From TrEMBL:
Taxonomic source organism: Corynebacterium casei LMG S-19264
Keyword terms of this UniProt record: Glycosidase, Hydrolase
Coiled coil regions, renumbered to chain: none
Protein name: Hydrolase
Family according to the record: Belongs to the glycosyl hydrolase 25 family.
Length: 389
């Protein structure tokens, strides 16, 4: 949900998102920077320029939404929420806070404008379990209470352990959720991803009474984790395009139609269900493939067993062309999460899980409570430059 490093798999001029067998295209001047205008280019089967193949932002009969942070405000620009709504988005979740000090300067404007354009509105807090749980819940609640049009449940974004054991993480999460519910009067929602919950939370069933928002960048809706019997929301992509938002944005599906979303927002948290179960959405880049091979290449590079070009080849085959830069940066600063990568390789986890893991490793390594340090901006800038975005 950080919307920074997760663009690493899209750093090429073309992306395998459509079947165009042996097409001959006449590319416009802006299609591939540096090439002359209007030249014929033979494209291999299955490839189209990235700006000519865009992921569908909605799915018929299901409520769609976006989640945003400051990354959707390049150079301080605004989101055109009227266009977002017109583009079929029914809800928006805005990052409110992180740790005990960081707040999103765009929070009030984004939430008020989204609500004014008829969207259901929510916020989230990026958890830093290395810090005090109650203090973070209090910090988030203070931001939450600024949002007058808050219709969706407040969200705990839990993706990093910061050295805590599963038992310690469960204690931290329990304390945060209890404090947040007391301060807001709302039942919170849990955002996480499969690898983290199964391995770092020991797949605990303790929190299954809260709504579940699960990230999984794949074409088929994931099964729930822990003791949950359904997903309430599915973050299906971190590289969507929606009118009114500059660059990429996270795409989400609610497990229901608009009427069910309205009931859910009104506090009927059992209103979701029946739309995501078994759903397959065939658009965009599918990162549902097994991550074992690419993890092996990353660990081999870290151990000095292979050279950088070997990882680059493996990354390209996995449609993760920006991966070597990210991995090399983590290795150089001794921030590569080796133990977690080894654990992930031993399990049945996807390339999407790998992207989220590395994204969070980069964030925690370079941000002291927030994603606004000079070092972090440099990393993001380099990746966005490679992406041409």
């Amino acid at each position: 949900m950080l919307m920074a490093m997760r663009k690493l798999r899209l750093l090429t001029a073309v992306t395998a998102t459509a079947a165009v067998a042996g097409s001959l295209l006449i590319l416009p001047a802006t299609a591939i920077p540096g090439l002359p205008a209007n030249i014929p280019v033979n494209l291999p089967s299955g490839l189209l320029p990235d700006d000519m193949v865009q992921q569908a932002s909605t799915v018929p009969g299901i409520a769609s939404g976006v989640d945003v942070s400051r990354w959707q405000h390049p150079d301080g620009g605004s989101i055109a929420w009227d266009q977002v709504r017109t583009d079929g988005q029914s809800f928006a979740v805005v990052k409110a806070s992180e740790g005990t000090t960081w707040t999103n300067e765009h929070l009030v404007d984004d939430t008020s404008q989204a609500a004014a354009n008829g969207m259901q509105v929510g916020t989230y807090h990026y958890a830093r379990p290395g810090g005090d749980a109650r203090a973070q819940a209090q910090h988030y609640a203070s931001q939450y209470n600024q949002v007058g049009n808050h219709s969706l449940p407040p969200v705990l974004d839990l993706e990093v352990s910061e050295g805590k054991s599963p038992e310690q993480l469960a204690d931290w999460t329990r304390e945060f959720m209890n404090e947040l519910e007391t301060l807001t009067g709302r039942t919170p929602m849990m955002y996480t991803y499969r690898y983290f919950w199964i391995e770092q939370m020991n797949n605990t069933q303790e929190f299954a009474n809260y709504p579940l928002w699960l990230a999984a960048y794949q074409s088929t809706a994931p099964d729930p984790v822990g003791g949950w019997n359904k997903l309430d929301m599915w973050q299906r992509s971190d590289s969507g395009r929606v009118n009114g938002i500059a660059g990429n944005v996270d795409l989400n599906l609610f497990n229901g139609n608009e009427a069910q979303l309205n009931m859910f927002s009104a506090g009927q948290l059992q209103a979701s269900g029946g739309k995501l179960e078994g759903l397959t959405v065939n658009d965009g880049v599918d990162l549902g493939a097994d991550s074992t091979v690419i993890i092996g290449a990353i660990l081999a590079l870290a151990a000095g067993a292979i050279a950088a070009p070997a990882l680059a080849d493996a990354a390209q085959n996995a449609n993760l062309d920006g991966l070597p830069d990210v991995v090399n940066g983590l290795i150089a600063n001794d921030n590569l999460p080796v133990e977690q990568l080894e654990t992930m390789a031993d399990g049945n986890y996807t390339l999407g899980d790998l992207v989220i893991l590395l994204d969070n490793a980069e964030h925690v390594a370079n941000a002291t409570g927030a994603d606004n340090t000079t070092e972090y901006k440099a990393v993001v800038g380099a990746l966005n430059g490679l992406a041409g975005r």
